[in-house]
Amino acid sequence: MPSQPRTVKHQPGPRRRHGLTREQIAKAALDLIDAEGLDGLTMQRLAGSLGIGTMTLYGYFRSKDELLDAVIDAASEPEGSFTRQGPWREQLAELVRLNYRRLVRHPALVQIRLRRPILRPRSLRFGETILAILHEAGFGAEEAAGAFRLIFTYVFGYAALSPQQTVEEQRRETAAAIALLPPEQYPHLTDTANEVSMAMAGENQFEYGLQRVLDGVEAAHGRQVAG
Amino acid sequence: MPSQPRTVKHQPGPRRRHGLTREQIAKAALDLIDAEGLDGLTMQRLAGSLGIGTMTLYGYFRSKDELLDAVIDAASEPEGSFTRQGPWREQLAELVRLNYRRLVRHPALVQIRLRRPILRPRSLRFGETILAILHEAGFGAEEAAGAFRLIFTYVFGYAALSPQQTVEEQRRETAAAIALLPPEQYPHLTDTANEVSMAMAGENQFEYGLQRVLDGVEAAHGRQVAG
DNA sequence: ACCTGAACACCGTTCAAGT
DNA sequence: ACCTGAACACCGTTCAAGT
After folding, report:
1. Which of A157, A187, A188, B26 has minimal Cβ neighbours within 10 Å of its Cβ?
2. pTM of the entire structure?
3. Which nucleotide's C1' sits nearest to the alpha carbon of A54?
4. Which residue segments constitute the domains of chain B, with CATH numbers given?
């Protein structure tokens, strides 16, 4: 169950011995995960990087799970640069791009989300804005919810399936695996090894798929309106 | 780097003391992951369930990673029921549905893929068949590779982001989180809480998104052919 | 040749003790 | 009141020893 972000004691000044706040600790944890993956965040290492005893962390957070909630909040600062302008499709595209970049900046969000749903108010802003745009574009409630789920699946799915390795490493690895296949059993993969290797890594592919997803949402809406 | 599925010794008969094969062990590991998640698979527990010593496993697999490769193969039996029939769009849809069901049957595949790319020949069959269908439909190499990546992202992303909890639990949790939001700040989410909760859980949503993805692929192909 | 217990360097968290 | 070392029940894997 999701735990509330309550402070252990409600005191304005840093009465604590180390002068640390929950937010500062969460930020340090976020940096650790972004740099080394979710497995890289251990209570021992986090405490070590802050120069405090491991058990001191449990004075700020009841468990590692509660710490992860704070990490999510730390990574979910509102997107200041987003302003709703232009046709609904372009508004959606821009919002999705901004949130995709956030996920690239903070792989921690993706890795945590793969373990459990993220339902913090700050994170739900993304859904609220998408629904607002679709509502204004004339989408019904069910239609809008379906489109939101698809868009959410695409942006998180893309980020989740993008490797932590460099683009170059990934392409080489894909190409190497294809090169090992018997061409007569895998003719198309063999013939298009280059194109497939390119498509499986790199951020330019994100935009291509996003446009296809929006094509699909738009097409269904057009049929709905027409029918 | 991906390790080869080589047997430690090439002997036809089960000369081994326990009479166990790599395949049998991999199958047991697959069952463990499917039932309890990737974290549920530990060398100690797997050995225990097989009634052998932990270290005996290392006589069959050089490392846990090599064991996971065998688990992937065990879960990737070819889809016997798939026959290419009808228009390309329906062929794609059916192939994707079959593979989605495979992922639902074997969450192990999704959980392993989130840790590293899956590049085993048996798994690459999926890509080969998609490329074959698209090629026959007149897609160019780059266009086909882009469509493959999108479809792959959708099917794995959808499976990866689907919770391990029951559909009912998930819906209740989503609805509860929305109910906690201040309605004046989240008006659309509040108004469509029901539709959103439904859309975020349950397999019927998979088909909706799949059709939108195929709409997008089809629309882009139509423009390509027309232009 | 095949199998395996003990040991090592890790985890998250409980508990009891320090200041 | 705040902090923390020791300890517990785990991990994957190395090593040396059993049959």
Report:
1. A187
2. 0.91
3. D4
4. 14-75 (1.10.10.60), 88-162+202-226 (1.10.357.10)
